[in-house]
Amino acid sequence: MTSIEVDGRRIEVPSGFSVKEALEKLGYNITLHPSDKGLFMPCQVGGCWACALKIDGEARPACTAQVQEGMRIRTAAPMGTPRRMVAGFMGHKTGGVGTPWWLESGLGFIEAVCFTSGCNLCCPQCQNWRYAFMDAGELLTPEEAAERMTETKKQCGVERIAISGGECTLNRPWLISFIRLLREQNPIARIHVDTNGTILTEDYIDELVGAGMTDIGIDLKALRISTFMEITGLLDEGLATKYLQTAWEAVKYLHDSHPQVFLGIGIPFNEELISISEIQEMAERIVSIDPWIQVCVLDYRPEFRRSDLVRPSHWKMLEVHYILRDCGLESVVCQTERGTIGPAGRLLG
């Protein structure tokens, strides 16, 4: 056993426990959705640093910090400047779900992008798993990340900045500060947030827009809970329901309350994971919001723990494209092995 002090209370916990596990044992409520009361610890891998607590006088992520004899933990102490793990500052030639389709030319960079570490989902076919499930990158303050991102943008010769992951929205104070600084340093740049939308509450969206976000791509994984749980790897149906509902509500709120923000929606496709009929139902729901919202269909391919998946063929994705157009969507693009199919049914670039 290891003796530690938590909020002035001396207790013993099993040796080898993480601080998070010790807090759970003591009865602290650990939450995975920010609307719930308790200590928000969404990624569990030390990437997002949303769970950072004052441990022996220093900010450390509770999900990965191991208890040590005599350790002192403060759950309500001020954290100071937020930090999180960030990697992959680079130019991007194809953009993301929230990148307007007409910008893709194949001739050069569209955006400068960075990838934040940690994710609140556990998608077994995750294409960015190195960022999602590892603490990849460097521990950066918003100021350090903004300087790096601004320099990357200059080197790429673009006026678009994308923040991806992992899931970039997990550490809210960090992201808001990062976007504000990017806006100050890049007054005419478009700032694009790439997200799964699962924790985007209305007040969070308002704060992102106020900070300077101009474009957003929300990757809606499914319409049905059973499909969502299979795609995301979540086992808690209640949590999955809350995540899925939050993401769909975020789309509607962004469309209705912030029409100046470019909104793109991602839909996954692989018949091993989601049916054509569910894709059609998703399209019909999006049409009920606005048929002109850009919808990008992502061809889920073999990756991470789902090496058994077979990537949908170009022709299958073209079929999906026309199915969604028949549902009433006017701006459908599809990712394929040959490139991106644009709204007119032809390859872009």
TrEMBL record:
Pfam families per record: Fer2_4, Radical_SAM
Molecular function, one GO term: 4 iron, 4 sulfur cluster binding
Domain Radical SAM core per the UniProt entry, residue ranges: 105-330
Domain 2Fe-2S ferredoxin-type: residue ranges: 1-79
Gene3D superfamilies: 3.10.20.740, Aldolase class I
Keywords linked to the UniProt accession: 4Fe-4S, Iron, Iron-sulfur, Metal-binding, S-adenosyl-L-methionine
Cofactor dependence: [4Fe-4S] cluster
InterPro entries cross-referenced by the UniProt entry: 2Fe-2S_ferredoxin-like_sf, 2Fe-2S_ferredoxin-type, Aldolase_TIM, Organic_radical-activating, rSAM, rSAM_sf
Protein name (record): Radical SAM domain protein
